[in-house]
Amino acid sequence: MQILRKTELKAYKKAKKIGQKGVIEILSKKGLVGRGGAAFPTARKWQFAIDTKSDTKYVICNADEGEPGTFKDHLVLEKVPENVIEGIIIAAETIAAKQAYIYLRGEYEYLKPKIQKAISSVLKRSGSKVKIDIVVGAGAYVCGDETAIIKSIEGYRGQAYLKPPFPPVEGLWGKPTVINNVGTLANVPQAILFDDWDPHLRLFSLSGDVTKPGIYEFPMGVSLKKLIELGKPKNPVKAVYFGCFGGCMPYKEILLTPENVCGQNCVIGAGTIIVVDNTHSIVDMAETIAKFYAFESCGKCTPCREGSKRCLDLIAKIQSGKATKQDCDTLLDLALHIHETSLCGLGQTATNHLITALKYFREEFEQKCKLH
Ligand code: SF4
Fold first, then answer.
1. Residue of 300, 302, 340 best suited for mutating to test ligand 1, as the one with most atoms within 8 Å of CB
2. Are residues 261 and 287 located together in one domain of the fold?
3. Is residue 172 located within the same domain as residue 207?
4. Residue 37 near ligand 1, beta carbon < 6 Å
5. What would the mean pLDDT of 22-33 be, rounded to a whole number?
6. How far apart are CA 285 and CA 33, in angstroms?
7. Consecutive H or E run containing 317
8. 301 Cβ closer than 6 Å to some ligand 1 atom
9. Looking at the domain assignment, is residue 84 inside a domain?
10. Which of 32, 170, 367, 368 could staple 42 via S-S, CB 3.0–4.6 A?
């Protein structure tokens, strides 16, 4: 796997030599974009922080990988934590930040000693004066949102807030803050160092009804069929979910690009593929995912807090056989409403799975309804 190639601080040395301007130029030219899902150009994000005048700046490594079915950052942190730390010190020195934080998913706490060891080793060998602390999250899914991470590190309840201002301009404690995902930061030294670094390579987390789940590295545009066949499904595949937030589509051949997936009314996000075969019910999937969102809603805004529970009530009614087809329409209306009116990314994407399931697999919901 290309992502697991070690960079051994050679990229850091090169970054020191070419300086701030050189680093921004190289990352921009090589086309490094965020690996957390939004695919924002990394050099541009760093440039915003450079352009904002402040005596204090921060870097945050988002290691709060909480999306169900997503486990690619875990692999990177486990196998090449030094590359991530090297990416962090390059980011910090490029934007002139003296302090960086790694916001680690609560469930990954057992990785903390390994990451701590990598921090000590990299700082000692590089001579960098950047201070890096690990903050372990308490297990809230919403803290994958960058504004919720900021609140959590500041010591408040992890809840999202409206942007702008964006973190590179006004972030942690009101100071310019660059927040990058683990995969992005691991790619920074690779992009700087290797001439054959491929900007299109991505890690896909494959799980669900496959006998060989795991992380597969392919360029964007890989065939969905090829990827799923590598996972060796036991039964005919019925549907594919792009994580819980990215929606679902009937299984068919498409090339996995953000545009193609968007054309199926889904979001490719962080490359999460959950396979569902013909032995599983889409209504059961809807219930499981809706329970997750009702539990994870932070409660700050009404559409997500109340709506996610009402979705669950309606699905339970459909499961009980007491619902009518009108209830399916109500569920869709509610799902669209939550999608359009929620405050943060969690609520805005919480019902994608319902909107797409009711578009593509409505008959499975209606089969459970009363005939009148
Ligand atoms: S959308 Fe949900 S998670 Fe986000 S602020 Fe509103 S209640 Fe909280």
1. 300
2. no
3. no
4. no
5. 98
6. 32
7. helix 302-320
8. yes
9. yes
10. 32
